[in-house]
Amino acid sequence: MAGTYRFSFGPWNIHEGADPFGPVTRDPFSLREKLDFAVREGFSGIQFHDDDAVDITLSLMEQNKHLKELKALLDDMGLEAEFVAPRLWEHPLTVDGGWTSNNLESRRYAYDRSKRAVDIANALGTKRVVLWPAREGTYIREAKDSKVAVDRFIEYIDMLLDYDKDIRVLGEMKPNEPMDSTFCPTTGHFLALASRTVDPDRVGILIESAHAILANLEPSEEMGFALSFGKLWGIHLNDQNNLKFDEDKTFGSVNLARAFSQVYILDKYGYGNDGEYVGLDIKAMRTQPRETSMKHLAYSRKIFEMLLGKARNCDERYMEELRQAGDYEELSFYITGLLMK
Questions:
Q1: Per-residue pLDDT of the chain (341 residues; tens, 9 = 90+)
Q2: Which of 33, 58, 204, 291 is least enclosed by beta carbons within 10 angstroms?
Q3: CATH classification of 7-314, choosing from 3.40.50.720, 3.30.300.180, 3.20.20.150, 3.90.1170.40?
């Protein structure tokens, strides 16, 4: 059941080149310039953190006015908000996490800001709220009670589900960074946790290629796991060079066979046919000048489409014969040859 595909990215994917070891290397683009690029390159979805969409230090009246204008602009440009994610990891109150923090004030802040993110999602016309548990973890094992942390994770998701009876919560799991170790590091962890929430039918997963690789897992196998449960509601495609920091490289630029496996499994099981986006989460190389600092997004989409053509040209009958014969060496050679044509 071949998938049908729409593509998205977030405003943070077009950035100024700063990293932990150096300052910015190029001037910023305005949000309007980023949206113009999205339209020009055939993207139809925009991923938002809450503060990508609106300055959250404004009054609620001012925020709502701005959100109404942004929604009108997206509509006029033929774009839609794919999701909204509360950015909880940069505030002083969340240095040790939000909903799993030992500090009651920090947990209250995480709850209040997340409710506001739901309001922003509604204002922009999306029912998807993405959770990246960036600081919901530990630097040392004894810093937080892991059992209590999981319970707080469930209570937090229950709060969101109760706050809005129509939203869908997507967990974007990652095993490390910025914390040494994060709670619920993989797809399986989060789906197990989701089963204990007040409404499991509204809790699913967003899988990022690099996050799976950082857990020493194959992204396509994580995707297959979520697809089996009917829970793969979002993806962030990118690439990763070994087990280190989250590099967010252009999709397929490091390991083409690994990228092919992701496209193959997504297309085989109809990902996208229920409106799911092919989301990109990719950093431009620090060395790129401003005028070419959007190539990573355009090229990632093109690589996906090129690999899609390869996947749809596979001789499935022949591949199944090789599977049944256990001739995986021949299967590997067949796929390698397909990618080299």
A1: 688 899 999 999 999 999 989 999 999 999 999 999 999 999 999 999 999 999 999 999 999 999 999 999 999 999 999 999 999 999 999 999 999 999 999 999 999 999 999 999 999 999 999 999 999 999 999 999 999 999 999 999 999 999 999 999 999 999 999 999 999 999 999 999 999 999 999 999 999 999 999 999 999 999 999 999 999 999 999 999 988 899 999 999 999 999 999 999 999 999 999 999 999 999 999 999 999 999 999 999 999 999 999 999 999 999 999 999 999 999 999 999 999 98
A2: 291
A3: 3.20.20.150
283 CB-side CA count, 13 A: 14
Q: What is the pTM of this model?
A: 0.96
296 included as an active-site residue: no
**Both tokens assigned to 58:** 């404004």
> From CA 220, how far away is CA 213, in angstroms rounded?
10
49 is catalytic: yes
For 37-60, give the secondary structure using H, E and C.
Answer: HHHHCCCCEEEEEHHHHCCCCCCH
Residues 6+ apart with CB under 8 A from 22: 286
Pairing of strands 181-182, 278-280: unpaired
* Nearest alpha carbon to residue 132 among 248, 227, 29, 15: 248
Catalytic residue among 15, 19, 27, 49: 49
